[in-house]
């Protein structure tokens, strides 16, 4: 006859930990949709990354993606400015305001061998809407491919100013 060692306290603690981890996940704590009339957003862009003991560089193409997630209202892109590693303005990508209709998107591309930005480049994006809308998804997508080796990753935008116009 086999006797199992059963510790009720350990079982209770395990069930409690499981419940806390899988039922009260931090991402699910705030399921409320956040609406806004505008923001200024910082997006990291990596024109290159370093690798190896000799600090070799791996060049990356980059794309800034702006997606209006609101199914009903448009948003207006006021500014898309590209800055280098030192915070110096490289390029203003839009000369006039750009309207994105409901669920529309746009992107801005930086070529793989454009080294002006460096590893600390960034975009500052400013948008607004006449209505409270679902916040757009604003992110950087980096991609590099050389000698059969590929690297890709994304960087989400970081809100640096909320506008209540």
Could you name the CATH class? Mainly Beta
User: Architecture, according to CATH?
Assistant: Sandwich
Uncertain residue segments: none
Give the full name of the CATH homologous superfamily.
TM1070-like
> Mean of the pLDDT scores?
87
Q: Your description of this structure?
A:
It is a single chain. By secondary structure, the chain is mainly beta. The protein has a single domain, classed as TM1070-like (Hypothetical Protein Tm1070, Chain: A, Sandwich), CATH 2.60.290. It is 12% helix and 52% strand. It is built from two helices and twelve strands. The longest helix is centred in the N-terminal third of the chain and has 16 residues, at 8-23. The radius of gyration is 22 Å and the shape is elongated.
Which features does this protein show?
single chain; 165 residues; mainly beta; Hypothetical Protein Tm1070, Chain: A; 4-stranded antiparallel beta sheet; 2 helices; 12 strands
Chart the SSEs and their pairings.
Layout: H1 8-23, H2 26-29, E1 35-45, E2 48-51, E3 56-59, E4 61-67, E5 75-83, E6 89-92, E7 98-100, E8 105-110, E9 121-134, E10 137-146, E11 149-156, E12 158-162
Antiparallel strand pairs: 1-9, 1-12, 2-3, 4-8, 4-10, 5-6, 5-7, 5-9, 10-11
Question: Quick summary of this structure?
Answer:
Helices cover 12% and strands 52% of the residues. It is built from 2 helices and 12 strands; from the N terminus they run ααββββββββββββ.
């Amino acid at each position: 006859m086999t006797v199992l060692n059963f510790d009720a306290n350990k079982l209770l603690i395990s069930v409690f930990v499981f419940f806390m981890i899988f039922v009260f996940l931090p991402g699910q704590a705030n399921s409320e949709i956040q609406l806004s009339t505008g923001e200024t957003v910082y997006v990291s862009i990596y024109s290159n990354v370093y690798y190896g003991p000799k600090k070799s560089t791996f060049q990356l193409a980059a794309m800034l993606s702006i997606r209006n997630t609101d199914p009903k209202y448009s948003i207006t892109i006021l500014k898309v400015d590209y800055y280098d590693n030192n915070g110096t303005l490289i390029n203003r990508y839009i000369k006039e305001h750009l309207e994105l209709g409901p669920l529309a998107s746009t992107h801005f591309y930086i070529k793989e061998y454009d080294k002006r930005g460096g590893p600390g480049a960034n975009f500052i994006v400013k948008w607004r809407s006449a209505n409270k809308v679902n916040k757009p998804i604003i992110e950087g997508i980096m991609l590099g491919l050389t000698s059969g080796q590929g690297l890709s990753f994304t960087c989400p935008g970081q809100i640096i100013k909320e506008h209540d116009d």
